[in-house]
Every structure is written in C-alpha cells, then in structure tokens.
Design a protein that fits this description.
With 320 residues, the protein is an alpha/beta fold. 35% of the residues lie in helices and 19% in strands. It is built from 12 helices and 16 strands. The strands form 3 sheets. Strands 1-2-3-4-5-6-8-10-16 form a 9-stranded mixed sheet. The protein has a 4-stranded mixed sheet with strand order 7-9-11-12. The chain has a 3-stranded antiparallel sheet with strand order 13-14-15, covered by helices on one side. Strand 11 and strand 12 form a beta hairpin. Helix 7 runs parallel beside helix 8 and helix 8 packs parallel to helix 9. This is F-box domain-containing protein. Pfam families: F-box. It comes from Aquilegia coerulea.
Length: 320
C-alpha cells in the first residue's frame, strides 16, 4: 500500500468528534504554525474545544485580561462583521473566565450597538480601554453601556462629538464612583476642532470634570487643546487629584485661531503643599526649583516658558 493511501486511510478514521478530541498540546503545536488572522478566521470558529485553545493565543492574556488588539483591518462600513466577531469572542468565554480588564484595538470603528453588546457581557470590568476614534458612539449609547460598568477604576476614551462631551463626563461620574484614572485620547491635532477630533479642555469642560469626577487621581490628556483656565480649574477643584499627564497637546492663547505648542524634552514635576500659615504653594522642578503661591502663576509661567513644545513623551504635573 502506498504512503498516500495509508495516510488517507488514517485520516479517514477520524470523525469530526475525533478532531475535536485531539489533545490540547497537539492542537497548540498545530495552531502555532498558523498566521493569527488565519487562526481566528478558521480554527477559532470550528468548535468550543478549539476556541478554548485559540483564545489564549489570540485574545486571552490570563489574570482576567481580554485584549482584542488583533481585531484589525475592519473598515468603518463593516459593522456587521465586527458584531459577528464580538459575538464569537464574548459568547465563547468560559464561565470561569471572569474578565476584569478589556482592551479594544486603538483604531476600531465602534458603534453604540457594539459597545452595549460588550457591556452586557462584561459587567465586572475594572479597566477599560476604548478605541481612540469613539466619535461613532453617541452620548445616549455611551450612557446605556456605562451603566453596566460600576466597578471601573481605569478608563481610556477617545474623542466624542462636541455636544456629547458634557453628557459623557456626567454619565461616568454617576456610574463610576471608583474611577481613579481617566485618559482622553484625541486622534488628530487640528486647529479646527468642530469635527470633534480634538478634546478641548476649557473652563466649561474642566468644570464638568471637577464637578462629576472629583474622585479621579490621575487625568491624562493626549492630543488635546488646553486652556490655562481649564488646567487651573482641575488643579484647584479636584480634591483627590495626584497628577496630570499631558502629551502631544497644544495650548490656546488669547489670539483667535492660534495655538502654541507644548515643547519636547520638558518634564515638570509639580507638587502642592500647605505652609505653616495654612496657605498653599506650588513647587515646580524643571531645570531649577521655583516656588509659586498660586496655581495660576505657575501655569502662566509654564505657558510662556520658551522651552515649551510638543513632548515626545508625557509631561507629568504631580501635585502631591
């Protein structure tokens, strides 16, 4: 009997159940030879047994971490495809797989329905990172989803359409009482911010943050347009604040439609302390130590400092 006939006869002995019952180490060895995209589109869909082998290779990182970073190349008009993939991943989770940290790919066009579907199935999240372009998610859609995430401590959001920002901040404050870290990540730095691609930290939005998220310890603004009044409000009114991280931002001046930039190679460590006479002073460390008696005078100095430009790494403002 030829080698081909022996092989064919051997393969023929296996039913579908036989393939399903292969040892996990054998399946792992086979699947490791496949491209991740091919693995997800083929083997992952076969049966529950195969999905349990594929999941740690693709998405499940252990310790409650589910990372969908491999879900790439899904276009803005492929919402149905994305929903099928989410159902395949989330509905296939074993009962013992309690997800506490969930990371979407940075560039994924997520709709209200996608977000709500994930929220219904992942109610125990403590850490959530949404895609950076979140402008397909409406304020109403965000409200429906965030109600399921009462235990969040760490949240990364992208930019929303302009009218929805205040509503989104309010909903986070109402539902996420344990939130300690909030990052707002703008995708593009455009001078025209009407399209909603840039988060604007002005007096209004900073008051919303200070009013509804006063328990947050760290704010991180990336790619945002900053107003000095906005930063001053957060520094003075957020009682639990420990630090502000600023990266790739611009700050607005009094000249309309002109925005200065925050400089690279600049690292500020700003601390707030109470003097013996119960007055508060701010101490900033850059190239030399300087002491200010108000946050406004400190920010004015930072605003006008000749070394301020777009940072290659975050500028951290620590106030404790």
């Amino acid at each position: 009997m030829s080698m081909w006939k022996k092989t064919k006869k051997s393969i023929g002995k296996y039913s579908v159940d036989g393939w399903k019952d292969l040892y996990e180490d054998i399946l792992t060895m086979i699947f490791n030879r496949l491209d991740p995209k091919c693995l997800f589109e083929t083997a992952y869909s076969v049966c529950q047994s195969w999905r349990s082998v594929c999941r740690p290779m693709l998405f499940w990182k252990g310790n409650g971490i589910l990372d969908l970073a491999r879900l790439t190349n899904i276009g803005i008009d492929e919402g149905d495809k994305l929903m099928k993939l989410l159902k395949l991943i989330l509905d296939g989770l074993q009962p013992q797989c309690v997800v506490t940290e969930f990371f979407f790919p940075k560039r994924l066009h997520l709709s209200d329905n996608h977000l709500y579907y994930a929220a219904q199935r992942l109610a125990n999240l403590q850490i959530l990172s949404l895609p950076h372009p979140t402008n397909m998610i409406t304020g109403v859609g965000f409200s429906r989803a965030i109600q399921h995430w009462k235990e969040l401590r760490y949240l990364v959001i992208g930019t929303f359409k302009f009218p929805d920002y205040a509503h989104v901040i309010q909903e986070i404050g109402v539902n996420c009482k344990n939130l300690e870290f909030l990052k707002i990540h703008s995708m593009e730095m455009k001078l025209d911010v009407k399209d909603g691609n840039v988060f604007v930290l002005d007096e209004r939005t900073s008051l919303e943050l200070a009013t509804h998220l006063c328990q947050v310890k760290i704010f991180w603004f990336h790619g945002s347009l900053l107003y000095i009044q906005g930063l001053e409000t957060i520094l003075n009114k957020c009682s639990s604040l420990e630090g502000i991280i600023i990266s790739s931002c611009r700050h607005a001046t009094r000249i309309p439609n002109f925005h200065r930039t925050l400089k690279n190679n600049t690292w500020y460590n700003i601390k707030k302390r109470t003097r013996n006479d119960n007055t508060i002073e701010y101490c900033t460390h850059s190239t030399e130590q300087e002491v200010y008696n108000s946050s406004l005078s400190m920010l004015h100095d930072l605003w006008n400092h000749e070394r301020m430009e777009v940072p290659r790494w975050p500028v951290e403002l620590f106030i404790r």
